[in-house]
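hi!! sorry for the late reply, been swamped w classes. u asked for the two structures so here they r. pasted raw, havent cleaned anything up. first the sequence of the first protein and right below it the tokens
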Amino acid sequence: MLFTKAILNQEPINIYGDGTTKRDYTYVADVVTAIEKIIDYLLKNQCNNEIFNIGNSNPISLLELIEKLENHLEINAIKNFLPARTEEIETTFADCSKLEKCIGYKPNTPIDKGLDEFAKWHKEYFNETLKFVVL
């Protein structure tokens, strides 16, 4: 959301390091579906102390994410490269094997499809909000 806002407003995006750190971005509808299925699983099995990872298990670099956002928004980002943070982890991603085993589900929306849906929603939501404010 912050990157999208910055790109659309032609404001710089701060990138700490060279942008090669990788994260596991997960489409929100996949997260919601997983949570619903986890709740059902916990209720059926009378559990209350389970931990599940929810993720796409397909990390991409920050620069790749920004490039994909640029493509979906059809605007180039202004990138502001800053020194890397010492606490930054190179790559993170979710091991969803327990999720798949217990509830038979794994988030599976590809990043491009998720970003396309997000970009459409963002444009519609904020255009509608602006129209509402103007009226």
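now the second protein. again sequence first, tokens right under
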Amino acid sequence: MTRRIVDLSHEIVDGMTTHPGLPGPSITTYLSREQSAGRYAPGTTFEIARIDLVANTGTYLDTPAHRFAGGFDLATLALERVAGIPGTLVDCRGTVDRAIGPEAFADVEVAGRAVLVATGWDVHWGTPAYLADNPYLTEDACRWLVERGVGLVGIDSLNVDSLADLRRPAHTILLGAGVPLVEHLTGLAALPRDGWTFYAVPPRIRGMATFPVRAFAVSG
């Protein structure tokens, strides 16, 4: 079988909006090729870019420290939690109710797996429609997943929670159980139900709880 890699990440571009109320990234040049020319041998130039962004930009991963003081952060995140995890796709596209309950996972193997929830909401990426009334997981769904030992949860929506619920129960339940979250995925329609592994590795930064990732799936 030929190996296939499916990119599941949004592109990060200057000034983009990921979440309501959060500033977009600023991408600039720190050292241009013209500026570097005088530092090296003739014909040898380099470019160094600079980016200023909040951690919750683009497709990003949440660790428990995002919700709970004392929870593990990016520096203490075990790689086996985010790299080479057997994956399961739960296809909720076309569902009228944006509240995704435990029934969506009733016939799905979740123990130790990266469970990615396809809602189709990523078609609105970059538009005002993406930023409100998003599909989300209910409290009961999150408790069901935790009770059955889910390894990681991802979603192609604005948030795993409803923004109208300020308790943020999905974050609270999943991160409270040590389950990493990946939000703002895209391209999940390209994945089969199973038979692939998931990767979403952030930089190892001490004291930070969330950060953009290059999320992707590998089959074959």
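hope this helps!! also noticed smth abt the second:
The chain has a mean pLDDT of 97.
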